[in-house]
Amino acid sequence: MRTPDEAAARYSYLFPIGYSYYAIATSMTAEFYQKLVNRCWRRSGTLVYRPNPKDSCCPHYTLRLDSTEFHPTKDQRQAVNRFNRHILGDTYDRDAARLHPRSRAEARRRHNEFDLVERIHESEAQFLKPRPPSPAHEFTVTLEPDTFTEEKYGVFENYQRIVHREPPNKISRHGFKRFLCDSPLIRETLVGADGTERKLGSFHQCYRVDGKLVAVGVLDLLPDCVSAVYFLYHESIHWLNPGKLGAVREIALAREAGYRWWYPGYYVHNCAKMRYKIEYRPQYVLDPESLEWYFLDKKTLALFDQEHYVCFSANQEREGGDGPGKSLDNPDPEEAEEDQDGSAFLLTSNMPGIPTVAQMQQVDMSRLVLRTDVSDRFIVASHLVIWETEDIAQCGSLKSRIAELVAAVGPDLIGEMCIDFRKRVGS
Fold first, then answer.
1. Where does 158-251 show beta strands of DSSP type E?
2. For residue 335, what is the enclosing H or E element?
3. What is the pTM assigned to this prediction?
4. Nearest CA to 202 among 219, 178, 216?
5. Which of the four pLDDT bands, split at 50, 70 and 90, describes residue 342?
6. What are residue 417's DSSP bridge partners?
7. Any idea where the N-end rule aminoacyl transferase C-terminal domain is (predicted)?
8. pLDDT tens, 319-336?
9. In this structure, are residues 53 and 352 in contact, taking their beta carbons and an 8 Å threshold?
C-alpha cells in the first residue's frame, strides 16, 4: 500500500467552500476532473462547482456530443466553407485546380462527401500544397499552454467590450487571468494502447490570420473528451461566424486526436443564448440523479418545456420505457464564497445525486488525506483530534464540511483526492 506522501503526485487537491456546491481546486489531474464533469461539475478558473438544478431558476444540465457520429448541418458546412474561401481567396481554387488537379474519383468523393477533418484543415498554411498558388491570407491554428499574454488579453478585451458589450471598467487583466488562464489541471501526455499520444490539461487553441491573433478557444483536454471552457474572438471577424467555426473545429479535434467526446458546457433551456449548443448533434444529456446519459432528441427536449426541473430516469420509470436568472455557466471565483448561505447544509438539501446524512455516516472517511499549513506532510483524517468526537450531522463542524465535499464529489473518489486546507495565495 502506498503512503500518502508516495501517492502525492496523483492526488487532486480540493478546498471545500460549500453549497450549491463550490470548491477551490489547487491541483487536479485530468482524469479526476473528467470524473467530476461526468457528475455534473464544471470549472471556472480554479473554482469547481456543481449547481443544484432543483433550486435554480435556470437549471443547468451537462451535455456531450459524440464526435465520431457528428454530421454538420448545411449551415455549419457553409460556415466552414465561407471561412476557407476568405482565407484562400477567389482565385486560389482555380489556380490550384490547374497546378494540382484532383483525380476524377477524388473530385467525385469531395462533391458527395463533407470530410470534417479535411475541410477544417483545408485553409491552414501547414496543410496547403507547396506554392504556387499563394492563398490570400496565411491562417494558422496552434494549441498553446493557457498562459497569459498581452496578445490574448487584447482579443479578450475587444470581445468582452464589443461583442458582449461589457463596460470597460468590468474588463481587466486580473479577471482574464483568473477566469481563463488560471487552471488547476495538470498538463501531461496520455499514451494510448496503440502508442498514440493525447495532450491532457488546459490549453488555448489560438487562431491567427496573417500573424495576428483573431480568436482563442479555451479548452480542457481530458482523457475522453474535449471540454469547451470559453471561446473569444476579435470583432473584425464577426461576419465569418467564428463561434460556429470554433465549435466545429473543437469537434474535429475530438475526432482526429481520439478524445471522442465534445462537451460544450452547461445547457440552460430557458436561456436563449445557450440554444446554439443543441444545434450540434448527436448529443446526450446527463441525468442529475442517476448520472446516466440520455439521448437528446425531440422527445427529451420536450420535457424541458413541460417541467422546470427534469429527472430523465424518473420520467422513464413513470412511462415504463425509454424565468431567466444569473447563469452559473461561468461564475466569478471571487464571488462564489461570498454567495454561500451559511445555514444551508448539503447533506439535508434537495440537491440531486447527493447522499443523505445517514448514508454518509456509513462512509469510511478515516483514510481521507488532508493538507494544512501546520505541517508540510499529509495528515490522515483519523489522526485529527476531533475526528472521533465530531459527527457529520453537526452542520458547520470540520467533519461535516469534509463530508459535504466527499458527498458532492462522490465517496468512491476518496482515495484520489486531498482536502486542502492550506491558506491560498491572495485569500
1. 188-191, 197-209, 212-222, 225-233
2. helix 333-336
3. 0.91
4. 219
5. very low
6. 12
7. 151-287
8. 665 433 334 456 665 555
9. yes
